[in-house]
Fold this sequence. Notes:
By secondary structure, the chain is an all-beta fold. The chain contains no helices and six strands. The protein has strands spanning 4-11, 33-35, 39-44, 57-63, 79-84, 87-97. Strand 2 and strand 3 form a beta hairpin. The mean pLDDT is 94.
Amino acid sequence: MGTKLKIxxxxxxxxxxxxxxxxxxxxxHYRPHLRGRDYLGIRFCEDIAAPHAGQEITTFIECxxxxxxxxxxxxxxxxxxxxEGGSRVGIATILVQG
Length: 98
């Protein structure tokens, strides 16, 4: 298992460049990337019903590929784009590491 991080995040509406179907339900099955210097694979740890676009939520994520990818830029206070492929669907801010 990778490092767990507490984050605050929100997903964009279709009008703001988010998914056309709206934000997905969150949980271990949802595995987008955080985009900083690199694309960083993550998964959401808690099952959460699909949030409303623009709704700020606090939850936990897990870094998925620490043995292969440098996650050193992921630290409290930093913000990252939430990416699905090449699409920017939300934003996340790291609150607490560990």
